[in-house]
Write a structure and sequence with these properties.
Layout: H1 7-30, H2 56-61, H3 75-83, H4 91-101, E1 106-109, H5 116-130, E2 141-144, H6 148-161, E3 169-172, H7 179-185, E4 191-194, H8 196-205, E5 216-220, H9 222-225, H10 231-239, E6 246-251, H11 258-263, E7 270-273, E8 286-292, H12 298-308, E9 314-317, H13 321-334, E10 340-343, H14 349-361, E11 365-368, E12 384-387, H15 394-401, E13 411-417, H16 423-430, E14 436-438, H17 449-458, H18 463-478, H19 493-499, H20 509-522, H21 529-540, H22 550-561, H23 574-579, E15 605-606, E16 612-613, H24 615-619, H25 621-625, H26 632-685, H27 687-699, E17 701-704, E18 713-716, E19 722-725, H28 727-742
Parallel strand pairs: 1-6, 1-7, 2-4, 2-5, 3-4, 5-6, 8-13, 8-14, 9-11, 9-12, 10-11, 12-13
Antiparallel strand pairs: 15-16, 17-18, 18-19
Helix pairs in contact: 4-5, 5-6, 8-10, 8-22, 13-18, 26-27
The structure holds adenosine-5'-triphosphate (ATP).
The site of adenosine-5'-triphosphate has 20 residues, from helix 5.
Length: 743
């Protein structure tokens, strides 16, 4: 048992701390532009270069400062770092720590595995230490991570480096059942490490949740957090945080979006991109291979790879949860000879954390969706990263491969590209990512499709899983944003279905529709012009935005709803239902069907006898109304006219709408003025009324309108209605008021 410290000891200790804080504060003061002194043997900060890269000069000034113990930080943090065996700083730590400790806003960018975590954990601890933050001060810093696993990892680093400090810290992530307990304690925590959804949940639901004193906000994987999946949640969070704070954003693929900066109210931030001039955007010790693999051979390749790398720790990325589940279950049954694990956003939280820890500890193959793509360190022990499905963009590629070759360790990655996705190679090259194109060794290929087919026969309840994997993969391709790379129509659908062991290709509604429209467009003579126009409009309908971070969005929502989705079969999409062969399909409740044979938004025009005219008849009148088919030129002319007409109609509609709005506004104004006048009359009539009238006058604020040069003031009432009053009128008004007050 630890011996309790004496009162004398504690007092001495406190005094020492006070002295230390004074010294640290004076260093920070000395970094201000007009200060001459530098009380510590530490180089002054470089002159500010917001949104610019660090120049060589900057680094040479820091040449002598390479170790954590040379930094102006507290002894407690230094001890914590020493305990965690952190001695030398990495580039991003050297570049950003001095600025961050001084309280500046930071946009930090550095390669994956280069130590960005410490670049924000240390300033968090130091800020609260210098402010002498205690339990009664409540939430002082908030660190937000896009995924739960990453939040756990950040929390571990915080605990290890900050173990000599006295701050309380909490991990707030979705999927945990103890939310009520969290609600009771959250106000006592000084540092919150959280996912956006859970933080917002506390902001919304926890009584007295107070972060008005918060000093520092950190977004790890900032580009991801500020991305579409979290937009609403993040905006809602930001709106509840104090404006006066230090904000730090870190990512390996940092953006310099002005919009982001404005959203987060960053003040003159330091953009510290330490590897911007580097020859490669990925770690130097990472060897990256690309193989061209047809869709129907991907599982064969993956199986062969696993079988031939039984002593490696391998992380495998697949596009969807259903694929991960299917491949995991199927391969497990086929016994590859190495433990298999799977990780995806639909698993229970405890299981997710357990899998993550197990994979850190033991050699195995982890099949995962993009939940494991960002930030996770896995004890720097991943040997191979295999991307079975192409990442949605270059940033996603960088983060996925970044799970290996971390901090001075080596790593290898393989990307399977389908022949239709080779455009990705150009994009990788343009982003300074050096990849080696390698041909699959056909002799070592171990086909697995036949074994999968036997499995599906042996375990019939396994078939829907394969079907779901099939459908969700195609769907994931369909909703990808980059159409140069991803084209669902180029995929060998039947072959892919067979490769999953399915006896027949599931029917997919969206593919059928696309095929149909393709057939129509390739047979112009058979296609009715009206159907053509329908098709044109259908294709233009904006789709739901592709959502690569779908999982994360789901997570944010899940965290909000507290619905711990149970990993199982609910939530089938309509395409999934389509995929199940008609015989096994559960009949759906019949829906009221409305047949619409014209494009939505087209106006129906009637002729003199009251018959509806086809659109063609209205524009190309006689010839087409009589059913004559149009040649291509006429057709183009027809479309042009149709578009013009639609534009005209649209304009007219808008005008009418605007007029209606105006009338409504005028009516409301008149009503309001009438009501006000009545109130004034009533108020002025009695003695009580006089008081109210006085109060009303007092409530009015008077602003000087700097734009007006005639010396007039603009009076703006709290109701927002303004009128002009001259100086004389105001003096008279003031006199009147004074008189009435005296009498
Ligand atoms: N100064 C250091 N000395 C020794 N090890 C370090 C140091 N800084 C970081 N590390 C180790 O390097 C590994 C990667 O660090 P970290 O997870 O912070 O990288 P990152 O830049 O945040 O990566 P990502 O972009 O993937 O999130 C970790 O295992 C961490 O413990």
């Amino acid at each position: 048992m630890k011996k309790p410290k004496s009162k004398e000891f504690r007092k001495r200790h406190r005094l020492q701390e006070d002295d230390e804080i004074k010294l640290l504060d004076s260093w920070i003061q000395s970094q201000k532009p007009d200060s001459g002194s530098n009380p510590m043997a530490f180089p002054p900060l470089p002159s500010k270069a917001p949104i610019g890269r660090l120049d060589d000069n900057t680094f040479s000034r820091y040449a002598g400062v390479t170790r954590f113990d040379q930094l102006p930080i507290s002894q407690k943090t230094k001890d914590g770092l020493r305990g965690a065996k952190m001695v030398e700083m990495t580039d991003i730590q050297r570049a950003s720590l001095p600025h961050a400790i001084c309280g500046r806003d930071i946009l930090g960018a550095a390669k994956t595995g280069s130590g960005k975590t410490l670049a924000f954990i240390i300033p968090v601890l130091e800020k609260l230490y210098r402010e002498k933050w205690g339990p009664e001060d409540g939430v002082g810093c908030i660190i937000i991570s896009p995924t739960r696993e990453l939040a756990c990892q950040l929390f571990d680093v915080l605990k290890s480096v900050g173990k000599y400090h006295n701050f309380s810290a909490g991990l707030l992530i979705g999927g945990r059942k103890d939310v009520e307990m969290e609600k009771e304690r959250v106000n006592e925590l000084n540092i919150l490490v959280c996912t956006p959804g859970r933080l917002l949940q506390h902001m919304d639901e926890t009584p007295n949740f107070d972060c008005t004193q918060m000093q520092m906000l950190v977004l790890d994987e900032a580009d991801n957090i500020l991305d579409r999946g979290f937009t609403k949640t993040v905006n809602a969070i930001i709106s509840q945080l104090p404006k006066h704070r230090q904000t730090m954003l870190f990512s390996a693929t940092q953006r310099k979006s002005i919009q982001d900066l404005a959203r987060l109210s960053l003040k003159d931030p330091e953009y510290l991109s330490v590897h911007e001039e580097s020859v490669t955007a990925t770690p130097t010790l990472l060897r990256q291979i690309v193989m061209i693999v047809p869709l129907d051979q991907k599982l064969d390749m993956l199986w062969s790879f696993i079988k031939t790398h039984l002593s490696s720790r391998t992380l495998v990325f697949l596009a969807t949860c259903k694929q991960v589940k299917f491949v995991f279950e199927a391969f497990k049954k086929l016994r590859p000879g190495i433990p298999l694990k799977c990780l995806h956003g639909r698993m229970k939280q405890e299981r997710r954390i357990a899998i993550y820890s197990e994979f850190c500890e033991k050699r195995s193959v982890l099949l995962s969706t993009d939940v494991a793509a960002r930030g996770l360190d896995f004890n720097k022990a991943v040997d191979w990263v295999i991307q079975v499905d192409c990442p949605e963009d270059v940033a996603s590629y960088i983060h996925r491969v970044g799970r290996t070759a971390r901090y001075k360790s080596e790593g290898k990655s393989v990307l399977f590209l389908m022949p239709s996705e080779t455009k990705m190679l150009e994009k990788l090259e343009a982003a300074k990512i050096p990849v080696h194109l390698s041909k699959p060794n056909k002799e070592r290929l171990q086909p697995v499709s036949d074994s999968l087919a036997s499995l599906l026969v042996k375990y019939p309840d396994f078939q829907p899983r394969a079907q779901r994997a099939f459908v969700t993969y195609l769907r994931s391709i369909r909703i990808q944003r980059d159409k140069e790379i991803f084209d669902v129509m180029k995929l060998p659908i039947d072959e892919y279905s067979t490769s999953l062991g399915l006896p027949m290709t599931p029917k997919i509604r969206f593919l059928n529709q696309k095929n149909k429209s393709k057939a129509l467009s390739t047979k112009p003579d058979l296609a009715e012009p009206e159907e053509d126009s329908d098709k044109e409009i259908t294709l233009k309908i904006p789709r739901k935005k592709p959502d690569p971070s779908n999982l994360q969005e789901e997570e944010a929502e899940k965290e909000l709803l507290l619905a711990d989705s149970s990993d199982e079969e609910e939530g089938k999409t309509s395409e999934v239902l389509d995929a199940i062969p008609p015989a096994t399909r559960v009949p759906k409740k019949k829906k009221l069907k409305i047949n619409i044979h014209r494009p939505v938004g087209t106006r129906v025009v009637f002729d003199d006898e009251g018959n509806a005219l086809p659109p063609l008849a209205r524009i190309a009148d006689t010839q087409s109304a009589k059913g004559t088919l149009l040649d291509p030129e006429q057709k183009a002319e027809y479309y042009r006219k149709m578009r013009e007409e639609l534009k005209k109609v649209d304009k007219e509609d808008k005008l009418v709408q605007r007029e209606r709005h105006r009338e409504k506004r005028i009516k409301e104004k008149i009503k309001w003025k009438e009501g006000n006048a009545e109130e004034d009359d009533n108020n002025i009539s009695g003695s009580e009324g006089n008081e109210t009238a006085d109060r009303r006058h007092k409530k009015r604020k008077i602003y000087f309108n700097s734009d007006s040069d005639d010396g007039k003031q603009t009076e703006v009432t709290t109701n927002g209605v303004s009128d002009s009053v001259t100086l004389e009128e105001q003096e008279a008004l003031a006199l009147k008021l004074l008189n009435s007050m005296h009498s």
